[in-house]
């Protein structure tokens, strides 16, 4: 299997599945958030604090461009699809894009109050569900395959991806 890009909301398991895919394929894993942190030399909440979401999204687009040029497993941040330029990059890349989809209330329980996730930190359940609804079409738009991760294990999700690619 060649490289794969994982998209989906915060808490959907992109990093976990990315690690499993990287182990099995022997490809490197790029976690886009970790790359942004390494490139900027700052934690995500500090980037949001200093340059706001707009500044963060610019760093994210730059990191996405660089990562898509490499033969790696790429795990993206949940908001990557909010930018039209990123959606274009994802739709035009030659790599399969897999959408990890899960129920918003389940994801909310995993990420609410997480100080390292500035977007989720201040949202209540309704706010998170609204965000999920706003983004759902964007995930579908950029992806080649959707996998529901609610009632399954990371190993099963990984096996499903392998069975397709
Ligand atoms: C964000 C998701 C985060 C991170 C940033 C913004 C979002 O990534 O990129 O906090 O807008 O959904 P994860 O999906 O890995 O939590």
Search tags:
165 residues, alpha/beta, Rossmann fold, five-stranded parallel β-sheet, 8 helices, 12% strand, binds shikimate-3-phosphate
Report on the architecture of this protein:
The chain is α/β, with parallel strands linked by helices and 165 residues long. The chain has a single domain (4-157), classed as 3-Layer(aba) Sandwich (Rossmann fold). 58% of the residues lie in helices and 12% in strands. The protein has a five-stranded parallel beta sheet with strand order 2-3-1-4-5, with helices on both faces. The longest helix is centred in the middle third of the chain and has 25 residues, at 44-68. The relative contact order is 0.21. Shikimate-3-phosphate is lined by residues 10, 33, 44, 77-79, 117-119.
């Amino acid at each position: 299997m060649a490289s794969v890009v994982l998209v989906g909301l915060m808490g959907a398991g992109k990093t976990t599945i990315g690690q499993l895919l990287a182990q099995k394929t022997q490809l490197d894993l790029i976690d886009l958030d970790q790359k942004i942190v390494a490139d900027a030399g700052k934690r995500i909440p500090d980037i949001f604090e200093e340059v706001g979401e707009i500044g963060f999204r610019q760093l994210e687009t730059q990191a996405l461009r660089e990562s898509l040029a490499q033969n790696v497993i790429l795990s993206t941040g949940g908001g990557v699809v909010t930018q039209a330029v990123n959606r274009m990059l994802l739709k035009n890349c030659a790599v399969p894009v897999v959408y990890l989809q899960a129920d918003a209330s389940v994801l909310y329980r995993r990420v609410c109050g997480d100080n390292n996730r500035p977007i989720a930190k201040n949202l209540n359940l309704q706010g998170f569900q609204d965000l999920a609804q706003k983004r759902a079409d964007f995930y579908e738009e950029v992806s080649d395959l959707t996998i529901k991760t609610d009632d399954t294990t990371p190993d099963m999700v990984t096996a499903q991806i392998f069975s397709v690619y």
